[in-house]
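User: Modeling request: complex.
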Amino acid sequence: KNEVEQSPQNLTAQEGEFITINCSYSVGISALHWLQQHPGGGIVSLFMLSSGKKKHGRLIATINIQEKHSSLHITASHPRDSAVYICAVVPSGGSNYKLTFGKGTLLTVNP
Amino acid sequence: DAGITQSPRHKVTETGTPVTLRCHQTENHRYMYWYRQDPGHGLRLIHYSYGVKDTDKGEVSDGYSVSRSKTEDFLLTLESATSSQTSVYFCAISVRQGEAYGYTFGSGTRLTVV
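Assistant: Request completed. Predicted assembly structure:
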């Protein structure tokens, strides 16, 4: 079983909808990352979280350490948000600079 | 933003030939990583480096070697390429930000082994 599970695997939305992508993990962590990858593109770091909530523009990331769960929200979604969103964690108690990745969520936002 | 470049961006090579991918960074960061990305598997760590001449294996290191003779360059070598090594390869660096490490990824190298 993968240590990091994302849901859904695929998500299709209409422009303007509120989007939620979930990430659950099974190990203790020191940090969690949300990454974005456009089709055929590079990987961009969106957020790094160790507690609470962070907001950047229309993107909001939350984490609940006790429940081992994080969510990425996109408000007023737009076709340019179409991408793969990847959750990654840094397990605690080990090398705190190595990531364990989820398999990603493919988001398609239709106009 | 850390300057990190990968070369080449695309390569097609024949089975059995050696291939070297280069990752170059401009800001003297200590930690560098090579990942491969495959459908259904996500990103997997091949090798990483924590300083000049200090490297270690990741979860999918078989068939790959690395070298880091200078802080700025981290080379990934496929000694004898196989079709199973067809993949997209990403280099990354990590930088300490408070209690944790932030990551910056290169643009990727698409390698096809025929």
